[in-house]
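Ops channel
N.P.: pipeline sanity check, posting one input/output pair.
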């Protein structure tokens, strides 16, 4: 009778462990999906911001280019065209950011850094651990209790 009962309890324990493992796996998959959806939304907002900024900067660039060109012709001073050069670099960068391949080049470079230069990504004093966080928490709580006295 006791052997039958202990076998039944072992089976229940094993089923419960499998259920908990399955449940934690589902929870982690949901967290990963949610974080990825949030990342996608943030990137979409950033691209949308770049496109909106491009509209305003493009208008400014066009007006500035026409005005500087007209001024250079009217005053016969080609030096007035000089601001067009740096403004055009900004304009082209913004176009690349909004509609071009900048994001793909950045992703490729990030992957290259992660693959070949991973040591650049290390945090000072390495990644925090539970023990290091607890040690800091205890030190802070003992310091605050000392100061309260």
């Amino acid at each position: 009778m006791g052997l039958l009962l202990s076998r039944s309890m072992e089976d229940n324990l094993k089923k419960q462990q499998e259920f908990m493992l399955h449940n934690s796996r589902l929870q982690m998959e949901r967290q990963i999906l949610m974080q990825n959806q949030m990342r996608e939304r943030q990137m979409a907002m950033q691209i949308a911001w770049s496109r909106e900024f491009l509209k305003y900067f493009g208008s400014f660039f066009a007006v500035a280019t026409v005005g500087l060109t007209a001024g250079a012709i009217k005053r016969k001073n080609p030096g007035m065209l000089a601001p067009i050069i740096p403004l055009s670099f900004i304009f082209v960068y913004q176009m690349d950011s909004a509609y071009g391949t900048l994001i793909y080049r950045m992703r490729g470079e990030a992957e290259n850094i992660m693959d070949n230069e991973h040591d650049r990504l290390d945090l000072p004093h390495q990644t925090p651990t539970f023990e290091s966080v607890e040690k800091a928490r205890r030190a802070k709580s003992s310091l605050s209790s000392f100061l309260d006295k």
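N.P.: looks fine end to end. The two ends are 62 Å apart (CA to CA).
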